[in-house]
Amino acid sequence: VEKYVKFVKERTEIEQNYAKQLSSSLLYPFPPPPLSLPPSSLPFLSHRFSNHQSFLDILNEMNDYAGQRELIAENMMMNICIELTKYLQELKMERKTHLSEAKKAQQSLESTYKQLDSSKKRFEREWREADKAAQYAEKTDQDINATKADVEKAKQQANMRTHIAEECKNDYAAQLQKYNKEQSQFYFSDMPLIFNKLQDMDERRVRKLAQGYVLFSDTERHVMPIIGKCLEGVTKAGTNVNERNDSIVLIEQYKSGFERPGDLDFEDYSQGINRASSDSSLGTLGTPKGPLELLGKNRSKPFWLFSKKSKLSPSPSSLTPLSTPPASSPANGPPSPKFGRDPLSYCLKEINKTVKPRISSFRTLGRMPTVTEDFGHLPPEQRRKRLQQKLDDIGKELQKEVDQSEALDKMKDVYEKNPQMGDPASLSPQINQTAQNMERLRLELSKYEVMDSPLLATVIHISIFIIKHMCVSPSSPDGTPSEEGTPDPSQAIYAEFDDDFEEEEEELVAPIGQCTAMYNFPGASEGTITMQEGEVLSVVEEDKGDGWTRVRRANGNEGYIPTSYVSISLSK
Fold first, then answer.
1. Does the keyword Cell inner membrane apply (predicted)?
2. Cα dist. 345→192, 306, 457, 495 in Å?
């Protein structure tokens, strides 16, 4: 029984370790992402893709499977180990009792035998003494020199010894009869009864052990239906994968919302017409990401939209058809106060706000986008989604603060009506703090609602359209740049564009070390590069505290990767 209990305990430990290791492997199915990594670059954490959802379903099923293995270990421990251990203690006590009874019976028989042996030896001794006394009396009687008194004394002594010998003989006979009876009782009654009890006890032990053997298999057989359902769930998860729907969801998630570039315009140099920019000439960097990337440069012929040679003073009259909103009617009400009386100035100011951060070159712009508060660095569709998500988050926080404010007001009313329950003044700091939080969240909500408004998006698109047509002065019919014009308040923006876009492609920065990838990285977001586990890359720029490291491949491709995904070795 002890060996079998030890065997089952080892089996339960194996099951528990297996379930524990299986559960721990389910907690971290992917390498831990850095804290600064945006959620949009971790599509595998999303539930929108059917293959990801199926994998999560498989993890859930395996979690249930691990739970069933733990249940097997618990049932084996409770129903087999603990029960058999308790039964084993009872067996030991019963066995001890039976052996004690056998020992007591044996001791009783041995005690009777000792009494018999003592009686036998006494009888033997007294009989010898009586025989000596009889011989001495007979010798004295035949002695002619002995007196009559001596003869009588010797005879009396012999008779006394003979009487004592007879008593010892009778006692010996009685002890012998008693011993024989007890011996017969011991061997024919007591010991067979004890052995029968021991036999019954051992048979019950074997039967209990056999039941433990059956429980060993029944315990696992009882959970097999649930384990079968878990495996069916894994199969179902595999059949639920819809690759077509996943591709559609992926497209919906990452679509930019930009329109396709238009055709290139024919430039007739024979007519002396200045070269005009087109949509595609401003988008030589691939898919545009915003107003900044529309201000590109032509690699064949460097042409800067706002360089000193191209500075133009647009005529207000010529820009009126493009920038002046339609005349307001009484039904529509007064014009929007945002535009004031000079919509072009407002448009250029909006563009000026978005280009404040200095960008050394388009190469740097491609790999390290400037993150703005209004998500202007994202494509239109992505920007709309992020703004809507921000609005939803602020709305939830605001609703939470409103609920807390209402609860504090009710509590204050209760305290005012029942002063013994608390001091109303003690709630004033919490009420004031809640009010400040609500005001702050309302301001943020209003700000992001303005950012998400279609009107602002329209203004930005109008501004871009105006800028693209400012390269040719509409005031001169031959396309010659106009040298005269009224100074515009928004002209200050040109000076900023002069400094930002006069630099050429920067030279490659010398690497400062190497790094080895510990995990795969998809590099789905803009400015990042893909990375395979075990790949060796050159470190160009250390982590500045944002969780990203700039690296370079042997072919010259550069980008950012999560710092926590690599093992970095810097050169001394």
1. no
2. 119, 16, 16, 15
CA 446 to chain centre: 37
* Radius of gyration for the chain, computed over Cα atoms and rounded to the nearest angstrom: 53
Nearest alpha carbon to residue 519 among 31, 52, 24, 26: 31
Mean pLDDT score of the chain: 75
Alpha carbon of 391 to those of 257, 401, 434, 445, 446: distances in Å? Answer: 20, 15, 19, 6, 9
Q: Quick one: pLDDT at residue 489? A: 42
377 contacts 357 by C-beta, under 8 angstroms? no
Q: Please, are residues 8 and 216 in contact by the beta-carbon 8 Å criterion? A: yes
Neighbours of 449 (CB within 10 A): 12
Tell me the DSSP string of 44-101. GG-SSSHHHHHHHHHHHHHHHHHHHHHHHHHHHIIIIIIHHHHHHHHHHHHHHHHHHH
3-state DSSP of 364-429: HHHHCCCCCCCCCCCCHHHHHHHHHHHHHHHHHHHHHHHHHHHHHHHHHHHHHHCHHHCCHHHHHH
Residue 366 has pLDDT above 60, yes or no: no
Helical pair 316-323 and 454-468, crossing angle rounded to 10 deg? 140
DSSP state, residue 521 = B
SS3 513: strand
Rounded-to-integer distance, Cα 384 and Cα 376, Å: 10
Reference 178, options 74, 125, 127, 108; nearest CA is: 108
Q: 454-468 vs 343-354: helix axis angle to the nearest 10? A: 90
Question: How far is it, in rounded angstroms, from Cα 381 to Cα 75?
Answer: 56
pLDDT mean over 293-303:
39
Q: CA–CA separation, 451 vs 434, rounded Å?
A: 26
C-alpha to C-alpha distances, 22 to 60, 69, 208, nearest whole angstrom: 12, 10, 34
What number of other Cβ atoms are within 10 A of residue 127's Cβ? 18
Residue that the structure tokens 């006692």 belong to: 171
Residue 233: which of 490, 106, 89, 57 has the closest Cα? 57
In angstroms, the CA 384 to CA 371 distance is 15
Count CB atoms within 10 A of the CB of residue 255. 13
Confidence of residue 138 (pLDDT cuts 50, 70, 90): confident
State how far the Cα of 90 lies from the Cα of 422, in Å rounded to an integer: 63
Residues forming beta bridges with residue 513, ordered by sequence position: 539, 570
Q: What is the pLDDT of residue 67?
A: 92
Q: How confident is the model at residue 56 (pLDDT cuts 50, 70, 90)?
A: confident
Largest CA distance in the chain: 194
Contact predicate 451/383, CB 8 Å: no
The model carries a pTM of 0.43
Helices 428-451 and 380-417 cross at an angle (nearest 10°) of 160
